[in-house]
TrEMBL record:
GO molecular function: nucleotide binding
Pfam families membership: GFO_IDH_MocA (PF01408), GFO_IDH_MocA_C3 (PF22725)
Protein name: Gfo/Idh/MocA family oxidoreductase
Domain GFO/IDH/MocA-like oxidoreductase: 127-236
Domain of life: Bacteria
Length: 330
């Protein structure tokens, strides 16, 4: 079978990684690159750096990866859809619900594969956790908490921390719990003097009644990426920087103290860190995109799911602005 010809739009910090992984992925070939700002990381190799997406389309590509600032996503995605090109757009799918919906419609109406680069879904620790939750190892899920903190990324200038960073947590939380968000209550802060928020703390309730808590900022001197899922039988803790997954088991406490005999609580039990293969998440994401194009399955993050993530993000911002709990369906 002939290799899929992939075009890459955007050769910045994320684009350079896409270029490397495309070249390392079986069944695809990097057929062209485009970036109006040139090739700062020298990843084009023997390929000519084009100035526009039309140059890539003219080169006869089958699919494209869009790794440019969010503000340009809609324009590029719609051009690629018009040309019949399957496309993976870096997260968030777009800067607002309206433009995201237009992108979704463009790809779905043409029967094209449209994916969004919510890469945390492909982290081995979270994939392993999801499998164990589905297998019932945690019992009923009660709560999901995430912490995503680190220094400010100078390359991000067109959206705030909610749409750029917290959409990771929105996506992975809904995916782990297999339930959409119902309500959110949020607080944001602007501490760095930039146009958009750089800190957010929000709680939520999913439609299946799991409660969630998320702490996200660009103001911490350390980098932290942690997801904790608490359930009937204990808690899973995933560190997605190291891709470690640990299980903390509930320990049942026997007591003869009459006043607390009827209380069914938990105490510290056994702790187990799992061993499993840890493949690069971006490689897994590209393999899923390739397989989806070839009709072989491929568990991509669909553009419609990306749209829902933006919808939740806008509910978070509305909640912070109006100091109230917001129903996501608003």
């Amino acid at each position: 079978m002939a290799e899929l010809r992939i075009g890459l739009v955007g050769l910045g910090m994320m684009g350079r990684h896409h270029a490397r992984v495309i070249r390392e992925t079986d069944g695809v070939v990097l057929a062209g690159v485009a970036d109006a700002m040139g090739d700062p990381h020298r990843v084009a190799g023997d390929l000519e750096v084009s100035n526009s997406v039309e140059d890539l389309i003219s080169a006869g590509i089958d699919a494209a990866v869009v790794a440019v600032p969010t503000v340009f996503h809609e324009d590029l995605a719609l051009r690629l859809a018009d040309a019949g090109i399957h496309t993976l757009v870096e997260k968030p799918i777009s800067g607002d619900v309206e433009s995201s919906a237009r992108i979704v419609e463009a790809f779905e109406s043409r029967g094209l594969v449209g994916a969004v680069g919510h890469i945390e879904r492909f982290n081995p620790a979270l994939q392993n956790m999801r499998q164990r939750i589905e297998a019932g190892e945690l019992g009923d899920v009660y709560q999901i908490a995430t912490r995503r903190q680190g220094p400010f990324p100078s390359r991000i200038a067109d959206v705030g921390v909610v749409k750029d960073l917290a959409t990771h947590d929105i996506d992975l939380t809904s995916w782990l719990a297999q339930s959409p968000f119902a309500t959110v209550s949020a607080h944001t802060a602007l501490r760095s003097g930039r146009e958009f928020e750089d800190m957010v703390s929000f709680t939520a309730r999913l439609k299946n009644h799991v409660i969630t808590n998320h702490l996200v900022n660009w103001l911490s001197p350390m980098k932290e990426r942690v997801t904790v899922v608490t359930g009937e039988r204990g808690a899973f803790v995933a560190d997605t920087i190291s891709s470690d997954l640990t299980f903390f088991e509930n320990g049942t406490v026997a007591t003869e103290w009459e006043s607390v005999m009827a209380f069914r609580g938990v105490s510290e039990g056994s702790m187990l860190r799992y061993a499993f293969a840890k493949r690069e998440p971006l490689r897994l994401e590209h393999e899923a995109f390739r397989d989806a194009i070839l009709g072989l399955g491929g568990n991509i993050v669909t553009m419609r799911e990306g749209l829902q993530n933006v919808r939740v993000a806008e509910a978070v911002l509305l909640s912070a602005l109006q100091s109230r709990t917001v129903n996501v369906s608003e």
